[in-house]
Amino acid sequence: MPRDPGVRDYVVRMLQLLQILSSVENRPNSQILRDLTRADTDIQYVQTHPRTPPGTIPVSDAATALEGVRELMIAGAYGVVSPPSLVLPRRKARQVEDFPRLARVGPSLEGSYIISVEIPLDTEDALFPAGAPFGRRVLLRLYDTIRTARDAANEAMEISELSPFTDRVGEGISTTLCRALARFGGEQQDRPFEMRFSWAATLPTGVVTPPLRFDEHMVSVLAQAEEDLGGNPATERGVLVRGTVWRTERNRPTEPGWVVVRGIATIGGRQYRRLVWIRLEPDDFSVALQAADHGLPVEIDGVLVRTGRRTELQQPGRLRITEE
After folding, report:
1. What gap in Å lies between CA 48 and CA 46, rounded to an integer?
2. Distance (Å, whole) CA 118 – CA 135
3. Residue 276 to residue 296: CA distance in whole angstroms
4. 279/257 Cα distance (integer angstroms)
5. Which residues touch 24 (CB under 8 Å, ≥6 apart)?
6. Do 108 and 30 contact (CB within 8 A), yes or no?
7. pTM, 2 dp
């Protein structure tokens, strides 16, 4: 960067620099300029995709996302100062509780709706005076655990079970982290989002941190993991499940088989996005195969059992193909 703003062509050179960086990094000039003017600040960008015009977001989704930011900061700070835990304790170290006060939410950038979370590194670090600033340690830890959560969500979608999350508790997975990430999918937790990390130029990390993307299906699995893991098994009667057939399993055509419906379970008037395992008799299984082949929605009622490993609909009624 030109160091003397008094040079006659300083403005022209800076504009050229912004244009070149914007082209190379495929980012708007405003983001490049923001990074250059915050050389002592780590920044985490969360790009949401609400169903509103670019640069706007429903108030309810914005409130949900900001609560997700706070919980994400707590999950990251906890991972630095405490041993891994699936369910974080109510009472946490003071550094963990205070960390969200250090973080700052900047203005939305160009795009669908991008939340920037700034962690200034120029403050005195009393916890790790000889090492990297506490905020840097938190964000590096967060990047690793968010990437782990993405991998767990992908694997959970493949096997339709939540064990990939519990298998990775030692890598930082917690219900708080899953809940925070799911909040970026909006109030209904059904929208994709992306995360990007920009590191302070005054303190290079030396590591590569490509963007992390979550589609709407991964968001729903994160929400299910937060709700079902770490608690006692639950049974709900009179539950209606609506959705699409995600997968089918059967040994022989004349035997019952398992199907997984991806959709919404209505429990006591409230709706929850779920991957639901259902054991069907041969006739109903044939209906499920027909629905799967033609991409048709289905519905079925029964007793919903959440084991912490997966969700099952027991004592099912008849599987029905619906028009919507």
Report:
1. 6
2. 10
3. 17
4. 6
5. none
6. no
7. 0.84
